[in-house]
Amino acid sequence: MDEHEILEVLKDAVVKGDEKLSTQKAQEAIDNGMDPYKCIKQGLSEGMAVISDLYDKRQVFVPQILRSARAMNMAVDILKPLLKFDASTSGTVVLGVVEGDIHDIGKNLVKLLCEAAGFTIIDLGKSVSIDKFVEAAKLNKADIVGMSSLMTTSMIIMPNIIEAFKENNLHCKVIIGGGAVSQSYADKIGADGYADDAAKAVKLIEKLVAEA
Amino acid sequence: MKEMTSRERFIAAINREDVDRVPIGPPFQGYWALDQMKVTVPDSIKDPKLAAEAQIAMVDKCEMDGFETMWDWLCPVEALGCTPDIPDVGAPSTAVHAIQSPSDLEGLEVPDPSCDYRAKSAFECTQNLIDHYGDEKFYYLTLVLPFTLVGELRGVEALMMDLFDQPDFIKDMLDLATDTINAYSEYLLGSGADGVCLCDPSASGDLIGKEDFQEFSAPYIKKCAKKVKKEGGYALLHVCGNTSDRLDVVADTGVDVFSQDFLVDIGHSRETIGDRLAVLGNVNPAETLFAGTREESLKETEECLRKSGGKGHILGAGCDIAPGTPLENILTWKEAIRNFQMG
């Protein structure tokens, strides 16, 4: 199998969520002396992009995305030790579910797709306090802070977080997502963006980083 | 048309018969009403009478025709061995999941709901409310469905992977969950409530596809609805997310009412399944009711009524009324209904 074919199979294995195939091909790529960065960027990540597009079109759903992510992550684990430099150069994104809310599936999907797109992710987890958001954004020199709420009781904290960023002179872009919020809510509280699913969130992040 | 009582109106709407006006059924006002009346969730469990008084205050103000007399819909989760996080405001969540591996399931048995302190509290609260209103209102109990219950026992992400890795294991868990919920329905309907609002948020149209819904959620909805009906109750169903592509599957479950998320166009569901069941909903609970103005709430409610045409429709929110939602926004419902000419 030539290099091009291996990349295609890696991509396909991620789309299908076939972790046996993705890990087997990752090993084969290494044995053939292929560049592990290329395998991630032009093989596995491409597969993740395909599946997230399908999710966007409601042709696949969350279980399929999680399965694809697993196939990708297991292959990345094999390739990672051989990476010569840190591949995560697209930008730094801090992610968290806002205080009072523990629904983190959407946030985790954004994380997976961002990682696939080459971003460095600082994942603060769920029910994250205002101070933690501020501290993490400062410490990691975040380009983007993404926060989510499924519950309306958490969503009302979002403007306070944006206010806290301003008070601390942080100039990172702030984007929001999750079942409770919307574009008009983002506009209302002065967020820099909103996305209604993980695939669109990554596109939004890429756009905002490019503009900065 | 002669003026109906709330209860007559609600039941006529369920049966898609003529009504004097569209009934109001929140569908989930419990936690909101507690918060409006400054009753904490732990206190509401300890003192069901206090909890009932909070509901009465809001039911009267908003002129609700039917309402939930039990909102602690996830109580079986604790009875099955998970550690809950019970906040002062809003619904409890699951902090520690009971089933980490298939062997954990073997040790689990269907709990006795009459020994569950939270179910007992809901039972008493229901009786308090029925004592207060008698035949005037329609009372329902809100209860989790098997797919979502398994998600709480197992963790939702783990459940999503189980769909591929160990579907038989899911079905074993679903069987236990079904037996549990049916035991709760039987016990709780003994309070005198009229029905059960069965909820499957983890089977959301935004989380799983139609095929998985058909295989892992719908058959169990059917079993739970059948049990509710066997006990003489009405079966209401709430599924979150955009379920527009699977309304036929929803109707096939045999429930009497579908409480739909705001993401489903109510005109579309009336057209698609309106001859088979009643629809409940579906004003946007977050953007409009919670964060919007009185005018926006009124406008969207009027639009909702216009789309449904009124018949076979119970007016409510597209999901739970979140604690902190302004009362004046919910008050627009009765105003919209008064102004509405039935189609």
Outline:
The complex is a heterodimer of chains A (about 210) and B (about 350). Chain A is α/β, with parallel strands linked by helices.
Structure description:
The complex is a heterodimer of chains A (212) and B (343). With 212 residues, chain A is α/β, with parallel strands linked by helices. Chain A folds into two domains: 3-82, Orthogonal Bundle (Methyltransferase, Methionine Synthase (B12-binding Domains), Chain A, domain 1); 92-211, Rossmann fold (3-Layer(aba) Sandwich), CATH 3.40.50.280. Helix content of chain A is 58%, strand content 10%. Chain A is built from ten helices and five strands; from the N terminus they run H-H-H-H-E-H-E-H-E-H-H-E-H-E-H. A five-stranded parallel sheet of chain A has the order 2-1-3-4-5, sandwiched between helices. In chain A, strand 4 (173-177), helix 9 (183-189) and strand 5 (193-194) form a beta-alpha-beta unit. The relative contact order of chain A is 0.12. Chain B is an alpha/beta fold. Chain B has one domain (6-92, 103-339): TIM Barrel (Alpha-Beta Barrel), CATH 3.20.20. In chain B, the strands form two sheets. Chain B has a seven-stranded parallel sheet. The longest helix of chain B is centred in the middle third of the chain and has 23 residues, at 167-189. The relative contact order of chain B is 0.14. The mean pLDDT of chain B is 97. Chain A binds chain B through residues 17, 58, 60-64, 66-67, 70, 100, 102, 105, 108, 151-153, 155-156, 179-182, 184-185, 188, and chain B through 85, 87, 89-90, 93, 156-157, 160-161, 163-164, 206-209, 212, 240, 242, 245, 285-287, 290-291, 322-325.
CATH topology of chain B: TIM Barrel
Corresponding CATH architecture of chain B: Alpha-Beta Barrel
- Estimate the mean pLDDT confidence of chain A: 91
Question: How many distinct folded domains of chain A?
Answer: 2
CATH fold topology of the largest domain in chain A: Rossmann fold
Strand percentage of chain B lies at: 5-15%
Radius of gyration of chain A: 18 Å
The 3D shape of chain B can be described as: globular
